């Protein structure tokens, strides 16, 4: 084993959206595990937009600590046990990503047991989509479902899950014509609406002439505004993200105002609720069992954009925010 490894630290608090210069790739000694800790050689870790909030410091109501200049970034990671109380060679899931070697507590590691055919699939962001679609809005046979941020880590999973749960028509919102094509060609979306390609309300009316039954919203902003106008009577809206505000250059990642027509909500009996996985502790295991079954049957795909090597990690979050990934963004070491 090498004596040193590389990790990514926050160099400074960004002025606006983060750039690669706001992060630094550092060479440091490989950490020694203390009592109860495991030394893990990371193989993959997730780049997730929530880091923008942690870096911005607006972490009220967020169950994760803020990141300050000099701190090492963190997030979901998969790695191989090298030393410590767990069996050497076993793959584990933990939250000390953004470094080549990590020392999580053994109690904070989850041994991977083969429930999913590919270990990397444990980094998929489908749990929130599945939980929202089964617990909050309860997708039914024949529903028309609209997913905002459809080309993101959650959205690429959400459309497929909605279909498997019985949705008849699935519509996605995105800002890229190329991604729209991929959503329809690769993931089975029936139609897409494009930000910047004309009035969203008119596009939704064409994509769903009979209206929308279910909205799974990862973005907020104008897409959510348009979704409320297109919603049927009794429609159900689940909020699972707020990327419009979270990734705004004019905000620090902890707020996402949106204009909603409350008259429409009232007169059409539309329900709207936010999904928090901590409120539904039974979802994770249920989702993983379904996900494993669907993957093995070829009924679902896990799209992600690989980031190859630690050398590229300082630019990984800025690239994600700039919309240069399809599905999840995962660093491969």
SSE inventory with pairings:
Elements: E1 4-10, E2 23-29, E3 39-47, H1 50-56, E4 77-83, E5 91-94, E6 101-102, E7 110-111, H2 126-136, E8 144-147, H3 155-164, E9 169-174, H4 177-186, E10 191-194, H5 200-207, E11 212-217, H6 221-230, E12 231-239, H7 243-246, H8 262-267, E13 271-274, H9 283-297, E14 304-308, H10 316-321, E15 328-332
Parallel strand pairs: 8-9, 8-11, 9-10, 11-12, 12-13, 14-15
Antiparallel strand pairs: 1-2, 3-4, 3-6, 3-15, 4-5, 5-7
Summarize the structure.
The chain is an alpha/beta fold and 333 residues long. The chain is built from ten helices and 15 strands.
Characterize the main sheet. Answer: 7 strands, mixed
Number of structurally distinct domains: 2
CATH class of the largest domain: Alpha Beta
> What best-fitting shape do the alpha-carbon axes yield?
globular
Report the β-strand fraction as a percent range.
15-25%
As residue ranges, the low-confidence spans are: none
Tell me the helix content. 25-40%
DSSP, total strands: 15
Number of helices: 10
Structural class computed from helices and strand pairing: alpha/beta
CATH homologous superfamily grouping of the largest domain? NAD(P)-binding Rossmann-like Domain
- Could you give the distance between the termini? 15 Å
Q: What is Rg?
A: 20 Å
Average residue pLDDT: 96
CATH architecture of the largest domain: 3-Layer(aba) Sandwich
Query: Helix-strand pattern, N to C?
Result: EEEHEEEEHEHEHEHEHEHHEHEHE
Looking at the structure, the CATH topology of the largest domain is Rossmann fold
Oligomer: single chain
């Amino acid at each position: 084993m090498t004596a040193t490894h590389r990790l990514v630290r926050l160099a400074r608090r960004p002025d606006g959206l983060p750039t690669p210069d706001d992060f630094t790739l550092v060479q440091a000694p490989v950490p020694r595990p203390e009592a109860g800790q495991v030394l893990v050689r990371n193989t993959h870790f997730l780049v997730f937009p929530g880091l923008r909030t942690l870096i911005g410091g607006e972490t009220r109501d967020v169950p994760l600590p803020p990141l300050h200049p000099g701190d090492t970034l963190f997030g979901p990671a998969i790695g191989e046990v090298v030393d410590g109380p767990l069996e050497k060679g076993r793959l584990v899931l933990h939250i000390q990503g953004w470094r080549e070697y990590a020392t999580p507590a053994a109690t904070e590691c989850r041994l991977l047991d083969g429930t999913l055919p590919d270990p990397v699939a444990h980094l998929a962001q489908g749990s929130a989509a599945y939980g929202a679609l089964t617990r909050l809005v309860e997708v039914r046979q024949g529903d028309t479902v609209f997913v905002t941020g459809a080309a993101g880590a959650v959205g690429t999973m959400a459309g497929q899950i909605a279909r498997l749960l019985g949705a008849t028509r699935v519509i996605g919102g995105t800002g890229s014509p190329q991604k729209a094509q991929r959503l329809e060609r690769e993931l089975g979306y029936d139609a897409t609406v494009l930000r910047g390609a004309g009035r969203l309300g008119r596009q939704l009316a064409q994509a769903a002439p009979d209206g929308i039954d279910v909205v799974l919203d990862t973005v907020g902003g104008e897409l959510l505004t348009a979704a409320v106008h297109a919603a049927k009577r009794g429609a159900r809206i689940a909020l699972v993200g707020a990327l419009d505000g979270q990734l705004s250059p004019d905000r620090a990642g902890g707020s996402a105002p949106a204009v909603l027509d409350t008259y429409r909500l009232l007169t059409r009996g539309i329900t709207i609720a936010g999904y928090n996985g901590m409120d539904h502790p039974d979802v994770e295991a249920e989702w993983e069992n379904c996900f494993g079954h669907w993957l093995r049957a070829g009924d679902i795909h896990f799209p992600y954009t690989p980031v190859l090597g630690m050398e590229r990690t300082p630019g990984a979050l800025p690239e994600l925010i700039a919309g240069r990934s399809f599905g999840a963004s995962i660093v491969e070491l």
